[in-house]
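Please go through the sequence and C-alpha cells given here and tell me how the chain folds. Record follows.
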Amino acid sequence: MKGIMAVYDADPFYASRFAEFVNQRGAVPFEAVSFTSLARLKEYAGQQKVDMLLVGDGIKEELADIPVGQVVRLSENGQAEGEEKTVYKYQASDNVLREVMTCYRVKEQPDFFPAVGKRARIIGVYSPIGRCGKTSFALTLGQVLSKDGKALFLTLEEFSGFAKMTGRSYESGLSELLYYYRQSEYNPLRLGSVVHSWGSLDYVPPAAYAEDLDQLGGETVAGLVEQIAAEGSYDAVVVDLGHFFWGAELVLALCDVIYTPVREDAVSDGKLKEWKEYLEASGRGRLWQRLRIIKLPNVRISAGKENYPEQLLWGEMGDFVRSLTGMTAREGS
C-alpha cells in the first residue's frame, strides 16, 4: 500500500501536472493527489490519512487544522522560512521529486514500505568483449521498455561515462544507495531521493568511485538490486554490468535474461569461448542458458552529442532493440 502525497497550489496546472508526474514514476512510495481548493483538501484529509503535503507559498495559518504527516513548502524563490522544509518549485519535476524524497523523514519508517506490486523482471547486459556497444544497447533497451511499463536503469560500470552521455552532473547515486543498504537503512524513499529520469526511463547515477563496487562486493550489490526488484515499483530493471570479478556473477544470477553483445572477429570469439569455459569450470554454467548473444548495429553518433540517449532511441540502435523485444514505438509516447 502506498502513502498519500497531497499537492496543493494556487496554480491548478502545476499541482495536477506534478501529481501526474509523481504517479508515473516508479521509485515513489506515494500516490499523489492534487488540490486547488483548501476546502477540498481539508475534507479529504479528514477522511484519508495524508502522509505528506506539498503546498505553495502564501498558505500558512490555513493549514493549522488540517491533519497531515509532514508539510514541504513549494517555494517560488527557493528560500526557506524558519525550520520549514522547502523545495524550489520552478525546476525540472524529477529534481523537485528527489528533493521532496530527501525532505521526508525516513526515520518514521511508514507502513507503506512493503512491496506494492510483483517483482520486476531483471535484465542484465554483459559482455567479456570490449567496445561492443554494450552500454549504448543497455540504455536504449531501458528507454524502449519504459514506453510499455515502468523501467529502471542501473549501471554497474566502474567508469561508465554516463555523465557525458546524459550531459548532466550528479550529487548522489548508486554509492549512496549501496551505503544505505549496507547499513540496513535502505528503503524506497532512499531510492526516490537519487533517481533521475530521461523521458519515461528512470535511472540511478553510477557509483561515484570505482572502489565502491570492489569494496562492497557482489553480495551487497546483488542484494540491493534484488530488493529494488522485489519492491514491485518497476516492471523491469535493466542492469549494465562492467568488470566481472568484483562479484558481478552474483548479479547475473538474479537476471531473468542476459544480453551479451559480441563482435565478429577471432579475438572476440576467443574471449566468448573462454568466458563460457570459465562459467562451466566455476560451477556457473547455468548462467549460459540465460544468455542471448547479439550483434549490434554500428552507432554513428558520439556520446558528446546533445540528447545522446534520445538519438540512440530513435536511431539504428532503437530500431534494433524494438525489433529484438518485439515492441513498436507508440505515437506520441
Q: What stands out?
A: DSSP finds twelve helices and twelve strands in the chain. Residues 328-333 have pLDDT under 50 and may be disordered. The chain has two domains: 3-108, 121-325.
